[in-house]
Design goal:
- This protein has two domains: 8-126, Tetrapyrrole methylase, N-terminal domain (Cobalt-precorrin-4 Transmethylase, domain 1), CATH 3.40.1010.10; 131-234.
- Helix 7 (179-187) packs across helix 8 (189-198).
- It is globular, with a radius of gyration of 20 Å.
- It has helices spanning 24-32, 47-52, 76-91, 110-117, 131-139, 159-168, 179-187, 189-198, 225-234, and strands at 8-13, 35-41, 61-67, 96-100, 122-126, 151-154, 172-177, 200-205, 208-213.
- It is α/β, with parallel strands linked by helices and 246 residues long.
- The N and C termini lie far apart (47 Å).
């Protein structure tokens, strides 16, 4: 790397799915970077890439980082290999825009890359809109107010741990909900009871399912398939609100 300044790594939050929620800064840096990297499932397209596809020029180099989309953290070897690939690009002096669904450092896949490269390269984090706040906005109801506390809990926890954390929370937002975990949350009486006592509500924005707690006992029940049906059974007195989720 003689005489060559390394490139700059940008961790760009692209939001929960609606391209209009991309920030101006994110769009500017995305357009300027010659290389775009993004997480992708082991097979199939990248959701993060799909959000910004309309702004990707044909001349950009793209690097897909394949992650296993299942509960638990990806193996460290995947992050090690990805960081090594990106470092080679940076060493050639090319800037990289690394796309991350939601926010890069809020349960974002970019965090593992950042921890491996930040000590050796210039890294800029561009925050994005998270599904947590997007769901509250879609419902048109406050997620949390004043001195109330909010617990953010991944649905991928073991059932007993999920139940315990929900029961201990004043208000809770459960993230990382897929079809299987949605059934797990409401299909078992212990978890359903914890949900009812924690006053939580279900929402779904652009394919990202989650549970969002709402203040003063007001509940919004998501309008998609099994999540809505199971939530209605678990919380029959919940106020039903149909979010405008585009």
């Amino acid at each position: 790397m003689t005489g060559q300044l390394p490139g700059h790594l940008y961790g760009i939050g692209v939001g929960p799915g609606d391209p209009e929620l991309l920030t101006l800064k994110a769009l500017r840096l995305l357009r300027a970077a010659p290389v775009v990297a993004y997480p992708a499932p082991e097979t199939g397209p990248s959701f993060a890439r799909g959000i910004v596809a309309q702004w990707l020029d044909a001349g950009k180099r793209e690097i897909a980082i394949r992650f296993p989309m299942r509960p638990g953290p990806p193996p460290a070897a995947i992050y090690d290999e990805a960081a090594s690939r990106l470092a080679m690009v940076l060493d050639r002096g090319d800037d990289i825009a690394f796309l991350c669904q939601g926010d890069p450092l809020f349960y974002g896949s970019f965090a593992g890359i950042y921890l491996r490269l930040a000590s050796s390269y210039q890294v800029t984090i561009v925050p994005g809109v998270s599904s947590l706040t997007a769901c509250a906005a879609a419902a048109g109801l406050p997620l949390i107010q004043r001195d109330a506390t909010l617990s953010v809990i991944p649905a991928t926890l073991a059932e007993d741990e999920l139940t315990r954390r929900l029961a201990e929370s004043e208000m809770a937002a459960v993230i990382k909900i897929g079809a299987a975990s949605a059934q797990a949350i409401h299909g078992r009486s212990a978890v359903s009871g914890a949900l009812a006592s924690a006053s939580v509500a279900h929402l779904k924005v652009k394919g990202t399912a989650m549970v969002a707690s709402l203040a003063n006992g007001n509940l919004a029940v998501g309008w998609r398939a099994r999540i809505a049906a199971s939530a209605a059974k678990a919380m029959p007195n919940a106020a039903r609100i149909r979010p405008n989720c585009r």
